[in-house]
Amino acid sequence: MQIDRPDQVWCADITYVPMKRGSLYLVAIMDWHSRAVLAWRLSNTMDADFCVAALEEAMNQYGVPEIFNTDQGAQFTGQEFTRVLKEAGVAIFMDGKGRWMDNVFIERLWRSVKWECLYLRELETGTQARQALVNWFRFYNEQRPHTAFDGRRPMDVYRQGQKAPKAA
Q1: Distance of CA 128 to the CA centre of its chain
Q2: For residue range 98-112, what is the model confidence (pLDDT) as tens digits?
Q3: Which long-range contacts does 135-139 make (Cβ < 8 Å, 24+ apart)?
């Protein structure tokens, strides 16, 4: 399938955030076309609530995607998360088991956020982690040039694509 416009396919995934003592969990909602991170949340548990909150924030701020892709994690296959998508009329797709390449754009995001932000710090508190991520995601979306887009930034690609006429 060719992904050629914003809001055609969004995806989500969870990764861990290493802390001095333990870890937190980070979920992000990403637009596949632009690679823009539309919303994210941190949690100290792996329940679905923080994933649903990120999804609802993204949909409230940016609208509704045509398709939503995730892995088969319990947070994404559970009733809470899928209900939000179904009520909005979004088609739900899930990666095959063990197929990280099915969601490669967000897997690449995790590599970047860990090596460019998280691994550079010894985070002691959730507040420190949240502030580091606020700064990094702002940089990633609004300032960091992306090689897939000839140096344009993800949110520039997202906004530009939203203004373009939609194909019938």
Answers
A1: 20
A2: 545 557 788 999 999
A3: 137/37, 137/40, 137/113
**Its pTM surpasses 0.70:** yes
Angle between helices 154-163 and 126-142 (to 10 degrees): 60
CA-nearest of 36, 43, 34, 29 to 81 is 29
Q: Measure CA 161 to chain center.
A: 18
Quote the CA–CA distance of 165 and 90 in Å, as a whole number: 20
Phi, psi of 38 (to 5 degrees): -85, -25
* C-alpha distance from residue 112 to each of 100, 136, 154 (Å): 16, 10, 14
Looking at the DSSP assignment, which residues form a beta bridge with residue 12?
29
Phi first, then psi: give them for residue 13, nearest 5 degrees: -160, 165
Measure the CA–CA gap between 52 and 82, rounded to whole angstroms: 9
DSSP state of 24: E
Please, are residues 40 and 137 in contact by the beta-carbon 8 Å criterion?
A: yes
Q: Which CATH number is 9-154 given? A: 3.30.420.10
